Recover the amino acids of this structure.
C-alpha cells in the first residue's frame, strides 16, 4: 500500500470510529426509549394493557427493542472494523 492509500485508509478508519460513536449514542437512546415504553406498559392494569393504548405501548417497545438489537449489531461490526486497523501492511 502506498503513502496515499495509507492516508485514505486512515481517513476511512477515522470515519469508522466516528460512526461507532454515533451508533453508540443511538443505541443508548433506543435502550432508554424501549425501557420507558416497557415501564409504562408494565405499570398499566391488565385491562388497560389490552386496550388500544396498551397495545401501542407494547408495539412501540417491540420496535424500539428491535432497533436496539440492530444498533448493537452495527456497533459490534464497527468495533470489528476498528480491530482490523493493524492488519494492513
Amino acid at each position: 500500500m502506498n503513502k496515499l492509500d495509507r492516508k485514505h485508509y486512515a481517513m476511512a478508519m477515522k470515519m469508522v470510529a466516528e460512526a461507532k460513536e454515533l451508533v453508540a449514542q443511538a443505541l443508548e437512546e433506543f435502550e432508554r426509549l424501549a425501557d420507558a415504553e416497557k415501564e409504562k406498559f408494565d405499570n398499566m392494569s391488565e385491562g388497560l394493557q389490552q386496550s388500544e393504548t396498551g397495545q401501542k405501548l407494547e408495539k412501540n417497545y417491540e420496535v424500539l427493542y428491535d432497533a436496539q438489537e440492530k444498533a448493537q449489531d452495527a456497533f459490534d461490526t464497527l468495533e470489528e472494523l476498528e480491530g482490523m486497523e493493524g492488519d494492513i501492511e
Notes: The chain has a mean pLDDT of 95. The chain has one domain: 3-84. The two ends are 7 Å apart (CA to CA). The CA atoms of residues 25 and 71 lie 10 Å apart.
